[in-house]
Design a protein that fits this description.
alpha/beta; 44% helix; single chain
Length: 245
């Protein structure tokens, strides 16, 4: 989350939301490394969706008595790379709502089995992560594997609900050269997927980019944005300066 001591969580949230068009209604707050009190404060200002990268940190945060009592409607997203040996631990997270980084059929099978054993009456929503730029340092399926992965989940994972495609994309793209091609790949993949499997386009959302390029991602077609601490501070700074004047 954001630097509450410097800006105030409520102030930072308002500053970010002023820069997020109504066309992108879902704002996810990245809460990794941030204390429980900051999560609770953001929750008090209306934020409901929070994302963490590390299983152990998420377990500690979500079992915190203050968060459990103060944030009954919180929705936790796991946004990091998930190793199969940590699946059972992740499935034990209270109020786990979404896994954003499914990129292997075997991982989907493991998550499905573990979620079934948990006995939840609701399906676990999942994103499929696509490595649109082919960088070895990034996780995700190659674009060519997208349709097969969706088919696998629909056919073999009854406790999972596929809802989105996601990509991080290349960093530092120069917008003077045109839209980020990685984002354009994901938009095209959705069109191909929906046509091939006869899925209405509005049932497949897109999650693209990271903090520093979320506005461009929205312009290209992202329906979900993920905001971290640095961006919130940078977005809030011009607002604070204007108020001081």
């Amino acid at each position: 989350m954001w630097r509450a001591a410097e800006l105030g969580v409520g102030f930072a949230l308002r500053a970010v939301n002023e820069r997020v068009p109504q066309a992108a209604p879902r704002l996810g707050a990245v809460s990794k490394t941030r204390p429980a009190d900051m999560v609770i404060e953001a929750y008090g200002h209306g934020q409901r969706t929070f994302g963490d990268n590390y299983v152990q940190e998420l377990l500690e945060k979500t079992s915190n008595p203050k968060i459990l009592s103060s944030c009954p409607e919180i929705k936790w997203h796991f946004i990091g790379h998930l190793q199969k040996q940590n699946v059972n631990k992740l499935m034990a997270v209270p109020n786990l709502f979404m896994l954003q980084t499914v990129d292997l059929a075997k991982l989907a099978d493991k998550v499905n089995s573990s979620w079934q054993k948990k006995g939840s009456t609701e399906k676990l929503t999942v994103m499929i992560q696509i490595n649109t730029d082919g960088e070895d340092s990034k996780h995700g399926l190659p674009p060519s594997g997208t349709i097969a992965m969706v088919e696998h989940i629909k056919a073999n994972c009854p406790s999972l609900e596929f809802v989105r495609l996601m990509t991080i994309g290349s960093f530092g793209h120069d917008l003077n050269q045109g839209p980020n091609p990685d984002f354009q790949v994901l938009v095209s993949l959705r069109e191909e997927l929906c046509k091939k499997l006869s899925i209405p386009a509005d049932q497949v959302e897109l999650n693209m980019g990271v903090s520093m390029d979320f506005q461009h991602a929205i312009e290209v077609g992202s329906t979900n944005v993920r905001i971290g601490n640095k961006t919130a501070a940078e977005l809030a700074a011009p607002v604070a300066a204007a108020q001081e004047r």
